[in-house]
Amino acid sequence: MRKLMIVVGGSLALAAPLASADILGVGATVSYWDSDFSGEVVNKDSAVDIEKDLDLDSDSNANFTAFFEHPIPVLPNVRLNYTSISQSGNGEIGPEGFDGIFSADVRSELDIDQFDATFYYEVLDNWVNLDLGLTARKFDGELVVRDTVIGGRVSKTSVDAVVPMGYLAARFDLPFTGVSVGAEGNVISFDGDSLHDFNAYGQYEIAMLQLRAGYRQMSIDYEDDDDKLDVELSGPFASVGVAF
Q1: Per-residue pLDDT averaged across 201-206, rounded?
Q2: Signal sequence span per UniProt (predicted)?
């Protein structure tokens, strides 16, 4: 498998001297993302539409986040995030075929797992909050398509990569209400491959509890040898978290 490894030298230097957290802080959130899938998967010279041909439905989309912030100016804060996406469905491959499967009813499973380690600095930290940093993202995606005929062909398409991405998060707090609105995202584009992951949300905070709801969109356009994943996921999400 081809690994996309990009060194983005010096990018954090823009943010490092600007700001840091005032106090020590830790937190964690868990969320559910009700996403719709669209796009295609390519195996060698054949392609399949995951929405029209495979009729995939969401089985589970889970997301876990933890962060650690500190008042040391030179060192970045750390944010860890894990997203697991599982889709399955029954569809039909036409006479044009996909990876040796022709004119057949199929059962398909698509799984995408990604782990982010984000290193960021707080540029602003008051009613207006702004974080800048870099994310190292490890993602794995696999599509398995099975001809439903007994003894039928099984096709497997997989991509995996470790990529750095730019990270930005902004939030505006409505004073004395516990209510805030914000957005955050990761993005990179290099040599024909691109990934982006954005969300916008509203949040209500009471004591140490944070309740958040919003909309998230993620796009993966990545080629790994003869396999290619070109998909987009989007939909609403809700999360609950604690911060100390």
Answers
A1: 96
A2: 1-21
